Amino acid sequence: MHILHYTVYMRKIGLAILSLLLTISVAEAKTHGNRDTVPAGPKRTLDKIVAVVGSSIILQSDIELGYARYLAEGGRPDEGVKCYIAQNLLTQKLLAQQAVIDSVTVSDDDVDNEVDRRMRSSIQKAGGQDRLEQFLGRSVLQYKDEIRPDIKESMVASKMRSKITEKVNVTPMEVEQYFKKIAKDSLPTFNKEVEIGEIVFQPKLSEKEKADAKAKCEELYQRVKKGEDFATLARLYSQDTGSAPDGGDLGFADRNTFVKEFASWAFRLKAGEISPVFETEFGFHFLQVIERRGEQVHVRHILIIPTITQASIDRAKAKADSIYDMLQKNQKIAFSAAAAYYSDDKETKYDGGMMLNAENVETRSTFIPTDKLDPQVALTIDTMKVGEISKPQLFTEANGKKDYKIFYLKSVTDAHKANLKQDFPKIKEYALNDKLNRTISEWFEKRRKETFIRIDPEYQSCPQLKGWNNVPLSAQAKP
After folding, report:
1. Calculated CA dihedral for residues 163, 85, 66, 106, nearest 10 degrees
2. Which residues, listed in sequence order, are joined to residue 412 by a DSSP beta bridge?
3. pLDDT above 90: residue 74
4. 453 - beta bridge partners?
5. What is the mean pLDDT of residues 181-199?
6. What's the average model confidence in pLDDT over 86-91?
Protein backbone atom coordinates (compact mmCIF):
# COMPACT_ATOMS: atom_id res chain seq x y z
CA MET A 1 0.00 0.00 0.00
CA HIS A 2 1.57 3.32 -1.08
CA ILE A 3 1.62 6.07 1.50
CA LEU A 4 0.15 9.24 0.01
CA HIS A 5 1.43 12.55 1.35
CA TYR A 6 -1.06 15.40 1.44
CA THR A 7 -0.47 18.92 2.70
CA VAL A 8 -2.56 22.02 2.96
CA TYR A 9 -0.46 23.59 0.27
CA MET A 10 -1.09 20.73 -2.19
CA ARG A 11 -4.82 20.46 -1.59
CA LYS A 12 -5.82 20.45 -5.26
CA ILE A 13 -3.33 17.70 -6.16
CA GLY A 14 -4.38 15.79 -3.07
CA LEU A 15 -8.03 15.96 -4.03
CA ALA A 16 -7.35 14.64 -7.49
CA ILE A 17 -5.41 11.63 -6.23
CA LEU A 18 -7.86 11.02 -3.44
CA SER A 19 -10.85 11.13 -5.79
CA LEU A 20 -9.27 8.40 -7.88
CA LEU A 21 -8.50 6.22 -4.85
CA LEU A 22 -11.93 6.62 -3.34
CA THR A 23 -13.55 5.02 -6.37
CA ILE A 24 -12.13 1.69 -5.07
CA SER A 25 -14.70 0.73 -2.47
CA VAL A 26 -15.17 -2.00 0.12
CA ALA A 27 -18.09 -3.45 2.00
CA GLU A 28 -19.78 -0.92 4.20
CA ALA A 29 -21.62 -1.60 7.45
CA LYS A 30 -25.35 -2.31 7.40
CA THR A 31 -27.58 0.44 8.71
CA HIS A 32 -29.00 -0.24 12.18
CA GLY A 33 -31.41 2.64 12.23
CA ASN A 34 -29.65 4.87 14.81
CA ARG A 35 -27.75 8.03 14.04
CA ASP A 36 -24.41 6.56 15.18
CA THR A 37 -24.67 3.79 12.61
CA VAL A 38 -22.45 3.76 9.54
CA PRO A 39 -24.69 3.76 6.41
CA ALA A 40 -24.83 0.78 4.11
CA GLY A 41 -22.79 0.85 0.87
CA PRO A 42 -21.43 -1.13 -2.07
CA LYS A 43 -20.29 -4.73 -1.95
CA ARG A 44 -16.81 -5.56 -0.67
CA THR A 45 -14.01 -5.32 -3.20
CA LEU A 46 -10.77 -3.84 -1.83
CA ASP A 47 -9.53 -1.85 1.15
CA LYS A 48 -10.12 1.88 0.87
CA ILE A 49 -9.14 5.20 2.38
CA VAL A 50 -11.64 6.37 4.97
CA ALA A 51 -9.89 9.63 5.80
CA VAL A 52 -6.84 11.71 4.99
CA VAL A 53 -5.39 13.75 7.85
CA GLY A 54 -2.51 15.96 6.75
CA SER A 55 0.21 13.52 5.68
CA SER A 56 -1.52 10.44 7.08
CA ILE A 57 -4.30 8.17 5.88
CA ILE A 58 -6.85 6.05 7.75
CA LEU A 59 -7.91 2.85 6.01
CA GLN A 60 -11.13 0.89 6.34
CA SER A 61 -8.96 -2.01 7.51
CA ASP A 62 -7.65 0.17 10.38
CA ILE A 63 -11.20 0.66 11.59
CA GLU A 64 -12.11 -3.00 11.07
CA LEU A 65 -9.06 -4.08 13.09
CA GLY A 66 -10.05 -1.73 15.91
CA TYR A 67 -13.59 -3.08 15.81
CA ALA A 68 -12.31 -6.68 15.90
CA ARG A 69 -10.23 -5.80 18.96
CA TYR A 70 -13.29 -4.21 20.58
CA LEU A 71 -15.33 -7.41 20.00
CA ALA A 72 -12.50 -9.68 21.12
CA GLU A 73 -12.35 -7.84 24.44
CA GLY A 74 -16.04 -8.43 25.13
CA GLY A 75 -17.71 -5.45 23.44
CA ARG A 76 -21.29 -5.85 22.21
CA PRO A 77 -21.72 -5.87 18.41
CA ASP A 78 -22.64 -2.34 17.30
CA GLU A 79 -21.66 -0.87 13.93
CA GLY A 80 -21.91 2.60 15.50
CA VAL A 81 -18.76 1.86 17.49
CA LYS A 82 -16.84 2.31 14.23
CA CYS A 83 -17.71 6.02 14.35
CA TYR A 84 -15.94 6.30 17.70
CA ILE A 85 -12.98 4.32 16.37
CA ALA A 86 -12.74 6.68 13.40
CA GLN A 87 -12.89 9.71 15.69
CA ASN A 88 -10.16 8.25 17.89
CA LEU A 89 -7.93 7.61 14.88
CA LEU A 90 -8.45 11.15 13.58
CA THR A 91 -7.46 12.73 16.89
CA GLN A 92 -4.57 10.30 17.17
CA LYS A 93 -3.24 11.31 13.73
CA LEU A 94 -3.40 15.03 14.55
CA LEU A 95 -1.59 14.57 17.83
CA ALA A 96 1.03 12.26 16.31
CA GLN A 97 1.80 14.74 13.52
CA GLN A 98 2.29 17.53 16.06
CA ALA A 99 4.50 15.18 18.08
CA VAL A 100 6.88 14.90 15.10
CA ILE A 101 7.15 18.71 14.99
CA ASP A 102 7.73 18.92 18.77
CA SER A 103 10.12 15.91 18.84
CA VAL A 104 7.86 13.94 21.18
CA THR A 105 8.76 10.23 21.02
CA VAL A 106 8.39 6.94 22.88
CA SER A 107 11.01 4.20 23.14
CA ASP A 108 10.72 0.89 21.30
CA ASP A 109 10.99 -0.93 24.64
CA ASP A 110 8.01 0.99 26.00
CA VAL A 111 6.02 0.14 22.88
CA ASP A 112 6.93 -3.55 23.12
CA ASN A 113 5.89 -3.59 26.77
CA GLU A 114 2.54 -1.99 25.97
CA VAL A 115 1.93 -4.42 23.10
CA ASP A 116 2.68 -7.34 25.41
CA ARG A 117 0.44 -5.93 28.13
CA ARG A 118 -2.48 -5.47 25.75
CA MET A 119 -1.99 -8.94 24.29
CA ARG A 120 -2.10 -10.53 27.75
CA SER A 121 -5.26 -8.57 28.50
CA SER A 122 -6.87 -9.55 25.18
CA ILE A 123 -5.98 -13.22 25.63
CA GLN A 124 -7.43 -13.21 29.13
CA LYS A 125 -10.67 -11.50 28.08
CA ALA A 126 -11.05 -13.83 25.09
CA GLY A 127 -10.62 -16.90 27.29
CA GLY A 128 -7.23 -18.03 26.01
CA GLN A 129 -4.81 -17.59 23.13
CA ASP A 130 -6.47 -20.21 20.93
CA ARG A 131 -9.87 -18.55 21.24
CA LEU A 132 -8.41 -15.12 20.50
CA GLU A 133 -6.63 -16.42 17.39
CA GLN A 134 -9.79 -18.16 16.24
CA PHE A 135 -11.82 -15.00 16.72
CA LEU A 136 -9.31 -12.75 14.93
CA GLY A 137 -8.55 -15.22 12.18
CA ARG A 138 -4.81 -14.69 12.59
CA SER A 139 -1.99 -15.77 14.92
CA VAL A 140 -1.06 -13.75 17.98
CA LEU A 141 2.33 -12.97 16.45
CA GLN A 142 0.70 -11.66 13.27
CA TYR A 143 -1.80 -9.66 15.32
CA LYS A 144 0.99 -8.12 17.42
CA ASP A 145 2.80 -7.02 14.25
CA GLU A 146 -0.42 -5.48 12.92
CA ILE A 147 -1.30 -3.51 16.04
CA ARG A 148 2.21 -2.38 16.98
CA PRO A 149 2.30 0.72 14.69
CA ASP A 150 -1.13 1.81 15.92
CA ILE A 151 -0.16 1.32 19.57
CA LYS A 152 3.07 3.26 19.06
CA GLU A 153 1.16 6.10 17.44
CA SER A 154 -1.41 6.00 20.24
CA MET A 155 1.33 6.24 22.88
CA VAL A 156 2.98 9.15 21.06
CA ALA A 157 -0.42 10.88 20.77
CA SER A 158 -1.07 10.39 24.49
CA LYS A 159 2.32 11.85 25.33
CA MET A 160 1.63 14.80 23.03
CA ARG A 161 -1.76 15.37 24.68
CA SER A 162 -0.01 15.50 28.06
CA LYS A 163 2.47 18.02 26.72
CA ILE A 164 -0.34 20.27 25.47
CA THR A 165 -1.87 20.36 28.96
CA GLU A 166 1.27 20.03 31.12
CA LYS A 167 1.22 23.69 32.21
CA VAL A 168 -2.53 23.94 32.73
CA ASN A 169 -3.51 24.71 36.29
CA VAL A 170 -6.20 26.66 38.13
CA THR A 171 -5.86 29.43 40.69
CA PRO A 172 -8.18 29.80 43.71
CA MET A 173 -9.84 32.70 41.87
CA GLU A 174 -10.51 30.52 38.82
CA VAL A 175 -12.02 27.84 41.06
CA GLU A 176 -14.32 30.44 42.62
CA GLN A 177 -15.30 31.80 39.19
CA TYR A 178 -16.01 28.28 37.93
CA PHE A 179 -18.22 27.59 40.97
CA LYS A 180 -20.16 30.85 40.56
CA LYS A 181 -21.05 29.95 36.97
CA ILE A 182 -22.87 26.81 38.12
CA ALA A 183 -26.60 27.44 38.44
CA LYS A 184 -27.81 26.90 42.00
CA ASP A 185 -30.33 24.27 40.92
CA SER A 186 -27.50 22.43 39.10
CA LEU A 187 -25.12 22.23 42.06
CA PRO A 188 -24.13 18.61 42.75
CA THR A 189 -25.08 16.93 46.01
CA PHE A 190 -22.22 15.14 47.72
CA ASN A 191 -23.03 11.99 49.66
CA LYS A 192 -22.07 11.48 53.26
CA GLU A 193 -18.29 11.08 53.51
CA VAL A 194 -15.95 9.79 56.18
CA GLU A 195 -12.24 9.78 56.92
CA ILE A 196 -11.07 6.45 58.31
CA GLY A 197 -7.76 5.23 59.64
CA GLU A 198 -6.89 1.56 59.98
CA ILE A 199 -4.29 -0.69 61.58
CA VAL A 200 -4.10 -4.08 59.88
CA PHE A 201 -2.79 -7.25 61.52
CA GLN A 202 -2.06 -9.99 58.99
CA PRO A 203 -1.59 -13.60 60.19
CA LYS A 204 2.10 -14.55 60.17
CA LEU A 205 3.03 -18.19 59.53
CA SER A 206 5.85 -20.01 61.28
CA GLU A 207 8.47 -21.84 59.22
CA LYS A 208 6.79 -25.11 60.15
CA GLU A 209 3.39 -23.82 58.94
CA LYS A 210 4.92 -22.74 55.61
CA ALA A 211 6.69 -26.06 55.01
CA ASP A 212 3.93 -27.68 52.90
CA ALA A 213 3.77 -24.77 50.46
CA LYS A 214 7.54 -24.68 50.12
CA ALA A 215 7.66 -28.43 49.48
CA LYS A 216 4.95 -28.12 46.76
CA CYS A 217 6.90 -25.34 45.07
CA GLU A 218 10.14 -27.38 45.27
CA GLU A 219 8.34 -30.34 43.66
CA LEU A 220 7.19 -28.20 40.70
CA TYR A 221 10.67 -26.72 40.39
CA GLN A 222 12.18 -30.19 40.06
CA ARG A 223 9.59 -31.17 37.44
CA VAL A 224 10.56 -28.16 35.34
CA LYS A 225 14.27 -28.95 35.76
CA LYS A 226 13.57 -32.49 34.53
CA GLY A 227 12.01 -31.18 31.33
CA GLU A 228 8.29 -30.62 31.95
CA ASP A 229 6.79 -27.54 30.31
CA PHE A 230 7.00 -24.47 32.54
CA ALA A 231 3.93 -22.77 31.06
CA THR A 232 1.75 -25.87 31.43
CA LEU A 233 2.68 -26.34 35.08
CA ALA A 234 2.06 -22.63 35.73
CA ARG A 235 -1.43 -22.85 34.22
CA LEU A 236 -2.23 -25.93 36.29
CA TYR A 237 -0.68 -25.08 39.66
CA SER A 238 0.44 -21.44 40.01
CA GLN A 239 -1.69 -19.48 42.47
CA ASP A 240 -0.95 -16.13 40.86
CA THR A 241 -4.38 -15.74 39.27
CA GLY A 242 -3.21 -12.82 37.12
CA SER A 243 -0.40 -14.65 35.32
CA ALA A 244 -1.34 -18.36 35.59
CA PRO A 245 -3.68 -18.31 32.53
CA ASP A 246 -0.72 -16.93 30.52
CA GLY A 247 1.61 -19.70 31.65
CA GLY A 248 3.02 -17.54 34.45
CA ASP A 249 4.14 -14.87 31.96
CA LEU A 250 4.58 -11.44 33.57
CA GLY A 251 5.79 -9.65 30.43
CA PHE A 252 8.50 -6.98 30.51
CA ALA A 253 8.91 -4.92 33.67
CA ASP A 254 11.54 -2.85 35.42
CA ARG A 255 13.11 -3.51 38.81
CA ASN A 256 10.64 -1.31 40.68
CA THR A 257 7.70 -3.42 39.51
CA PHE A 258 8.68 -6.37 41.71
CA VAL A 259 9.23 -6.85 45.43
CA LYS A 260 12.90 -6.90 46.44
CA GLU A 261 13.43 -10.68 46.60
CA PHE A 262 11.74 -11.25 43.22
CA ALA A 263 13.67 -8.43 41.52
CA SER A 264 16.94 -9.78 42.89
CA TRP A 265 16.53 -13.10 41.04
CA ALA A 266 14.87 -11.63 37.94
CA PHE A 267 17.80 -9.28 37.27
CA ARG A 268 20.53 -11.69 38.36
CA LEU A 269 19.82 -14.48 35.86
CA LYS A 270 20.50 -14.71 32.14
CA ALA A 271 17.88 -15.48 29.48
CA GLY A 272 16.70 -19.08 29.81
CA GLU A 273 17.97 -19.56 33.36
CA ILE A 274 15.64 -20.64 36.20
CA SER A 275 15.93 -19.45 39.78
CA PRO A 276 15.76 -21.76 42.79
CA VAL A 277 12.66 -21.59 45.00
CA PHE A 278 12.60 -18.38 47.05
CA GLU A 279 10.15 -16.64 49.38
CA THR A 280 8.46 -13.24 49.17
CA GLU A 281 5.57 -11.69 51.10
CA PHE A 282 3.23 -13.40 48.59
CA GLY A 283 4.48 -16.94 49.08
CA PHE A 284 7.03 -19.26 47.43
CA HIS A 285 8.14 -18.76 43.82
CA PHE A 286 10.60 -19.80 41.21
CA LEU A 287 11.02 -17.88 37.97
CA GLN A 288 12.55 -18.13 34.53
CA VAL A 289 14.06 -15.20 32.65
CA ILE A 290 12.81 -15.17 29.06
CA GLU A 291 14.53 -12.03 27.78
CA ARG A 292 16.43 -9.02 29.07
CA ARG A 293 16.31 -5.54 27.50
CA GLY A 294 18.45 -3.01 29.29
CA GLU A 295 16.77 -2.22 32.60
CA GLN A 296 13.72 -4.35 31.83
CA VAL A 297 13.29 -8.08 32.09
CA HIS A 298 10.69 -10.50 30.73
CA VAL A 299 9.99 -13.33 33.19
CA ARG A 300 7.48 -16.03 34.01
CA HIS A 301 6.98 -17.62 37.41
CA ILE A 302 5.05 -20.11 39.49
CA LEU A 303 3.66 -19.06 42.87
CA ILE A 304 2.47 -21.30 45.69
CA ILE A 305 0.73 -19.50 48.55
CA PRO A 306 0.93 -21.04 52.05
CA THR A 307 -2.42 -21.84 53.66
CA ILE A 308 -3.23 -19.62 56.62
CA THR A 309 -3.68 -21.66 59.80
CA GLN A 310 -6.05 -21.00 62.68
CA ALA A 311 -3.03 -20.71 64.97
CA SER A 312 -1.66 -17.83 62.87
CA ILE A 313 -5.07 -16.10 62.91
CA ASP A 314 -5.16 -16.44 66.71
CA ARG A 315 -1.69 -14.88 66.99
CA ALA A 316 -2.84 -11.91 64.84
CA LYS A 317 -5.89 -11.45 67.11
CA ALA A 318 -3.72 -11.46 70.23
CA LYS A 319 -1.48 -8.75 68.77
CA ALA A 320 -4.47 -6.66 67.65
CA ASP A 321 -6.03 -6.91 71.14
CA SER A 322 -2.74 -5.84 72.69
CA ILE A 323 -2.42 -2.73 70.50
CA TYR A 324 -6.08 -1.80 71.05
CA ASP A 325 -5.59 -1.98 74.83
CA MET A 326 -2.47 0.14 74.56
CA LEU A 327 -4.31 2.84 72.57
CA GLN A 328 -7.20 2.84 75.04
CA LYS A 329 -4.98 3.11 78.12
CA ASN A 330 -2.46 5.59 76.74
CA GLN A 331 -4.28 8.48 75.04
CA LYS A 332 -0.94 10.19 74.32
CA ILE A 333 -0.08 7.61 71.65
CA ALA A 334 -1.41 8.93 68.33
CA PHE A 335 -3.31 6.49 66.13
CA SER A 336 -1.15 7.57 63.16
CA ALA A 337 2.04 6.66 65.03
CA ALA A 338 0.63 3.26 66.03
CA ALA A 339 -0.41 2.59 62.43
CA ALA A 340 3.03 3.52 61.09
CA TYR A 341 4.72 1.19 63.58
CA TYR A 342 2.36 -1.79 63.84
CA SER A 343 0.18 -1.99 60.69
CA ASP A 344 0.93 -4.66 58.09
CA ASP A 345 -0.82 -2.76 55.27
CA LYS A 346 1.89 -1.03 53.24
CA GLU A 347 -0.64 1.12 51.36
CA THR A 348 -1.93 2.90 54.46
CA LYS A 349 0.67 2.57 57.22
CA TYR A 350 2.91 5.33 55.86
CA ASP A 351 -0.07 7.70 55.61
CA GLY A 352 -0.82 7.41 59.30
CA GLY A 353 -3.17 4.53 58.55
CA MET A 354 -5.55 6.75 56.56
CA MET A 355 -7.53 4.99 53.83
CA LEU A 356 -7.71 6.71 50.43
CA ASN A 357 -10.73 7.19 48.21
CA ALA A 358 -10.24 4.39 45.67
CA GLU A 359 -12.06 6.42 43.00
CA ASN A 360 -9.84 9.46 43.57
CA VAL A 361 -6.40 8.01 44.24
CA GLU A 362 -4.56 10.57 42.08
CA THR A 363 -5.54 13.41 44.40
CA ARG A 364 -4.87 11.19 47.44
CA SER A 365 -8.20 12.20 48.93
CA THR A 366 -8.99 10.67 52.32
CA PHE A 367 -12.70 11.58 52.08
CA ILE A 368 -14.61 8.43 51.17
CA PRO A 369 -18.34 8.38 50.31
CA THR A 370 -20.05 5.95 52.66
CA ASP A 371 -21.79 4.23 49.75
CA LYS A 372 -18.36 3.32 48.35
CA LEU A 373 -17.11 1.70 51.54
CA ASP A 374 -16.59 -2.03 51.88
CA PRO A 375 -19.82 -3.30 53.52
CA GLN A 376 -17.84 -4.78 56.42
CA VAL A 377 -16.13 -1.43 57.07
CA ALA A 378 -19.39 0.53 56.70
CA LEU A 379 -21.09 -1.70 59.25
CA THR A 380 -18.27 -1.19 61.74
CA ILE A 381 -18.08 2.62 61.58
CA ASP A 382 -21.85 3.12 61.40
CA THR A 383 -22.17 3.17 65.20
CA MET A 384 -18.85 4.92 65.91
CA LYS A 385 -18.42 8.53 67.01
CA VAL A 386 -15.81 10.89 65.55
CA GLY A 387 -12.48 10.28 67.32
CA GLU A 388 -13.44 6.77 68.42
CA ILE A 389 -11.34 3.63 67.86
CA SER A 390 -13.05 0.30 67.13
CA LYS A 391 -12.31 -3.02 68.77
CA PRO A 392 -10.30 -5.47 66.62
CA GLN A 393 -12.46 -7.40 64.15
CA LEU A 394 -11.71 -10.26 61.78
CA PHE A 395 -12.16 -9.35 58.11
CA THR A 396 -12.19 -11.57 55.04
CA GLU A 397 -10.77 -9.79 51.99
CA ALA A 398 -12.01 -10.21 48.42
CA ASN A 399 -9.10 -12.58 47.68
CA GLY A 400 -10.05 -14.79 50.64
CA LYS A 401 -7.28 -13.60 52.96
CA LYS A 402 -8.17 -12.97 56.58
CA ASP A 403 -6.82 -10.28 58.87
CA TYR A 404 -7.72 -8.30 61.97
CA LYS A 405 -8.34 -4.56 61.76
CA ILE A 406 -8.72 -1.64 64.12
CA PHE A 407 -10.47 1.47 62.76
CA TYR A 408 -10.30 5.13 63.72
CA LEU A 409 -13.11 7.46 62.66
CA LYS A 410 -11.41 10.80 62.03
CA SER A 411 -14.29 12.81 60.54
CA VAL A 412 -17.84 12.62 59.17
CA THR A 413 -19.27 15.00 56.58
CA ASP A 414 -23.03 14.75 56.09
CA ALA A 415 -24.64 14.78 52.64
CA HIS A 416 -24.94 18.34 51.36
CA LYS A 417 -25.14 20.63 48.35
CA ALA A 418 -21.71 21.58 47.03
CA ASN A 419 -20.15 24.68 48.57
CA LEU A 420 -16.68 26.20 48.40
CA LYS A 421 -16.02 26.04 52.13
CA GLN A 422 -16.47 22.29 52.48
CA ASP A 423 -15.72 21.10 48.98
CA PHE A 424 -12.94 23.30 47.64
CA PRO A 425 -10.65 20.32 46.70
CA LYS A 426 -13.46 18.64 44.74
CA ILE A 427 -14.54 21.83 42.99
CA LYS A 428 -10.91 22.58 42.16
CA GLU A 429 -10.68 19.18 40.48
CA TYR A 430 -13.84 19.89 38.46
CA ALA A 431 -12.50 23.32 37.47
CA LEU A 432 -9.16 21.84 36.44
CA ASN A 433 -10.81 19.12 34.33
CA ASP A 434 -12.97 21.75 32.67
CA LYS A 435 -9.93 23.84 31.83
CA LEU A 436 -8.02 20.79 30.56
CA ASN A 437 -10.93 19.83 28.30
CA ARG A 438 -11.25 23.38 26.95
CA THR A 439 -7.50 23.54 26.30
CA ILE A 440 -7.58 20.28 24.34
CA SER A 441 -10.76 21.27 22.46
CA GLU A 442 -9.28 24.63 21.46
CA TRP A 443 -6.09 22.93 20.28
CA PHE A 444 -8.04 20.46 18.14
CA GLU A 445 -10.28 23.18 16.74
CA LYS A 446 -7.25 25.15 15.61
CA ARG A 447 -5.44 22.11 14.20
CA ARG A 448 -8.54 20.92 12.30
CA LYS A 449 -8.74 24.26 10.52
CA GLU A 450 -5.03 24.26 9.65
CA THR A 451 -4.83 20.63 8.51
CA PHE A 452 -6.15 19.10 5.29
CA ILE A 453 -8.84 16.64 6.43
CA ARG A 454 -10.91 14.62 3.99
CA ILE A 455 -13.47 12.13 5.31
CA ASP A 456 -15.22 9.60 3.10
CA PRO A 457 -18.96 10.36 2.74
CA GLU A 458 -19.74 7.01 4.37
CA TYR A 459 -18.38 8.31 7.68
CA GLN A 460 -19.57 11.89 7.42
CA SER A 461 -22.92 10.76 8.85
CA CYS A 462 -21.19 10.00 12.17
CA PRO A 463 -22.19 12.65 14.73
CA GLN A 464 -18.77 12.30 16.35
CA LEU A 465 -17.08 13.53 13.14
CA LYS A 466 -19.24 16.62 12.63
CA GLY A 467 -16.99 19.55 11.77
CA TRP A 468 -13.92 17.44 11.01
CA ASN A 469 -14.19 17.33 7.21
CA ASN A 470 -12.88 20.55 5.62
CA VAL A 471 -13.24 19.57 1.98
CA PRO A 472 -16.43 20.85 0.31
CA LEU A 473 -18.85 18.17 -0.86
CA SER A 474 -18.65 19.61 -4.39
CA ALA A 475 -14.95 18.82 -4.48
CA GLN A 476 -15.34 15.20 -3.38
CA ALA A 477 -15.32 12.25 -5.71
CA LYS A 478 -18.66 10.70 -6.57
CA PRO A 479 -18.90 6.86 -6.42
Report:
1. -10
2. 194
3. no
4. 53
5. 93
6. 93
The strands making up 453-455's β-sheet, listed across from edge to edge, are: 56-59, 49-53, 453-455
Residue 37 is predicted with a pLDDT of: 39
- The partner residues of 254 in beta bridges, in order of sequence, read 296
Answer yes or no: do 272 and 361 share one domain. Answer: no
CA dist 266 and 262 (Å) reads 6
199 in a domain, yes or no?
Answer: yes
Q: Where are the alpha helices (DSSP H) in 258-345?
A: 260-266, 310-329, 335-342
Separation of alpha carbons 51 and 453, rounded Å: 7
Confidence check: pLDDT of 371 > 50: yes
**Would 110 be classed as within a structural domain?**
yes
Instruction: Judge whether 269 and 224 are in contact, CB under 8 Å.
Output: no
Structural domain range at position 67: 8-166+451-475
Residue 78 belongs to some domain of the structure: yes
Distances (CA, A) of 223 to 127, 217, 219, 230, 306: 27, 10, 6, 9, 20
**14 & 161 share domain:** yes
Are the CB atoms for 178 and 430 separated by under 8 Å? yes
**How high is the pLDDT of residue 46?**
60
What own/partner pairs with CB < 8 Å and gap ≥ 24 does 275-278 have? 276/221, 277/214, 277/217, 277/218, 277/221
CA distances from 270 to 251, 276, 297, 303 (A): 16, 14, 10, 20
Which residues is 411 bridged to in the sheet? 195
239-255 pLDDT, tens digit per residue, is 998 899 989 999 888 88
Q: Are residues 133 and 81 in the same domain?
A: yes
Residue 461 lies in a domain: yes
What DSSP string runs through 123-178?
A: HHHHTSHHHHHHHHTS-HHHHHHHHHHHHHHHHHHHHHHHHHHTT----HHHHHHH
Instruction: Please tell me whether residues 154 and 74 are part of one structural domain.
Output: yes
Q: Give the pLDDT score at 70.
A: 86
Q: Quick one: 300 and 314 in the same domain?
A: no
Global pTM reads 0.65
Least confident of 2-11, 189-198, 286-295, 437-446: 2-11
Helix (H) or strand (E) holding 95: helix 81-101
* Mean pLDDT, rounded, of the chain: 85
Last residue of a domain, one of 304, 322, 353: 304
